[in-house]
Amino acid sequence: MEEQLKRSRDRIVRKWTDALLNTYSPEMARFIRKEKDLFANPVGAAVRTSLGPLFDALVDDESPERMVAHLDQLIQIRCVQDFAPSEAVGFLLEIKGIVRTQLSEQESRSAVRFLETFDRRVDLLVLRAFDRLAMYRDRTWEVRIREVKRRVATLARMSRLTDQDLDPGVAPTPATE
Amino acid sequence: MARQAKFDEIEYYDHKALSAVDFRPPETGWMDTPVDMRPGTFIYPAKPRHLEYLGFPNPREWNPQDDDWKLPENWKEIIFKGMRERLDEYRSFRVFMDICVRCGACADKCHFFIGSGDPKNMPVLRAELIRSVYRNDFTTAGKILGKLAGAREVTIDVIKEWFYYFYQCTECRRCSVFCPYGIDTAEITMMARELLNLLGLNVNWIIEPVANCFRTGNHLGIQPHGLKDTLEFFADDIEEATGIKVDIPLNKKGAEILFVTPSGDFLADPGTFTCMGYMMLFHELGLDYTWSTYASEGGNFGLFTSHETIKRLNAKIYAEAKRLGVKWILGGECGHMWRVVNQYMDTVNGPADFLEVPRSPITGTVFENARSTKMVHITEFTADLIKHGKLKLDKSQNDHIRVTFHDSCNPARAMGILEEPRYILKHVCNHFYEMPENTIREQTFCCGGGAGLGTDENMEMRLRGGLPRGNAVQHVHERFGVNHLVAMCAIDRATLSTVCEYWAPEVRVAGIHELLANAMVMRGQKKRTLNLRLEPINGEEGDGDE
Ligand code: SF4
Ligand code: SF4
């Protein structure tokens, strides 16, 4: 079964990408597809480099940590885009349906076991992705607080309000890193 | 055909549905998509007391998330009258309304579109928000053909859309670089904001600084004694780092040069360290200069408000130059200040005939480019010093850092100051790396927080807008180990610090004159072991050699 999915990899990844792009405006979806330059189009670059390796990782049964690493940048981006948390990671679930469309009725019946395991892997992936999302959410609050502190740095130092270094340089990496 | 169930609906998990996936994007016309005021994306409205202080219309408490924005009854009339006046007064406004051919060259060049994917952040569509109203009411085709000609009536929802999207444009002008007709969406945003101001639709992050600047001389409302204390406090830190007590000429009549810098450098890290850098440089040169407690702001948030406000705030600098009897004005590391100086100062308040054409007292160089405004950018001044060998610099003092340079939108695109900052940086540090070509110089990506967007309640939006810049920074971090991003703009130093913390967390932000001062060998200094942040030089180990 893994072999069969690997053979349809390109088609599956393409459909999965469609599902992902469908969460964006049509204009953005077109832009993501068209502009290949990493610096002109960082979202496109993250899309292009994540779902393929992620699919391989799913089929090869890599650990959830390794799976979610392929997604990190995309999640970091989607965390600050206009999505509810469920929408930000929800597109991942679409792979369940996409994989099924690759199998004939008969194949699906004989592949029940495989599909059950596959679905569980996807569920695990989604949970991990949600952890990452929450981590980046935390980071948005953290950087906001730090900015507000930096804004009044002189006052804080002059009034000896704080001894704390207001800009230690390295940003927080809260929660599960 | 049955509707495709979504993954959070139970029908989705029905086997048949699972196999019938169809991902065609829904197409909704932009005119029919209302704005969604979600916290994190918009900026809080101006407090009534600041509007009252400035004599601006319609001061009141209101909330963008409410249905009722408490607009004046005759708001439509006000908008039409305001548009007509501006179309008559500013030829560029009318031209920009007329000549766009919707070629789309600008569409994907805005950092807010690139980061958010919201089509109304495409510059062409941002402009269309107001152009559609122009067509409807100021052109014959629009009056006859209506929607077919891309025209629409102005409604409360349209006004809400303006407020949302024109305070989501940082007036960075990146889009204009790519427009074959030179249409400057930033100018359109400025016009739209002027119109919004007529209805009392403005944001506190802009209006409070404007009111403060009007009252006390700077955006932050620092009073004269506060400024004096601040500079003295900086002088103490400088003494700790160098052993030298720098002097602080304040409101000194008859000084040769008036120095003006954004007030952010007084209060906010890391701009504070750049401010110390200026103080050290001037002390070392023995420059006959003065700070002013009245013209204590280089920035001009009038640029984000209205032409009239630009004029009112800018006038203070000239008035103070006249009162103190200086010969010319030197300006610090600020971004939009230079757009005002370069594009507006002369027409709104100039020419400053009572001042002299700036001439460096150290090198004798005459700054011809400042012949009219009499105001010189500090990187021009400092680069000239270095070129003439007037500064003793020990680059190895900065050996522990790897630097990249962010071209701030206004100095880069509105002034063309591209070489001077790089020239200085290459003389004060050994490890300098450029970010990718399509993200620097004229094509530089905005920090996402300029033009009055640099507050924190809209953080999500700012981080979206900061993605292209942050992405390029992270790239040079991974590739060359870059750990410092240098910017010559006070807004950048504040906002990019945050952008980096989110997108490139190993990189911190500094100003040019901070690095210069750290490398500068001052006469009579003690052995330098601390930088201006009072951290050990060359890293934790305190190892002077690479
Ligand atoms: S001026 Fe800058 S922020 Fe405004 S539309 Fe153009 S690119 Fe976007
Ligand atoms: S590049 Fe210029 S002419 Fe083309 S769509 Fe943009 S504003 Fe209009």
Q: Can you walk me through this structure?
A:
The complex is a heterodimer of chains A (177) and B (546). With 177 residues, chain A is mainly alpha-helical. In chain A, 72% of the residues lie in helices and 0% in strands. Chain A has eleven helices and no strands. Chain A has helices at 2-7, 9-21, 26-34, 42-59, 64-69, 72-80, 85-90, 94-101, 105-110, 112-151, 153-158. The longest helix of chain A has 40 residues, at 112-151. Chain B has helices at 15-19, 48-54, 75-89, 91-99, 111-116, 123-138, 140-145, 156-166, 174-178, 185-198, 204-216, 224-242, 264-267, 271-285, 307-324, 336-349, 378-387, 409-415, 419-428, 459-465, 467-480, 490-503, 512-519; strands spanning 257-260, 289-290, 328-331, 375-377, 403-406, 484-487, 508-510. Chain B has 546 residues and is mainly alpha-helical. Chain B is globular and about 75 Å long. In chain B, the strands form two sheets. Chain B has a four-stranded parallel sheet. Helices cover 45% and strands 4% of the residues of chain B. Chains A and B meet through helix 2, helix 3, helix 6, helix 8 and helix 10 of A and helix 1, helix 5, helix 12, helix 20 and helix 21 of B. Bound molecules: iron/sulfur cluster (SF4) (2 copies). One iron/sulfur cluster binds next to helix 6, helix 9 and helix 10 of chain B.
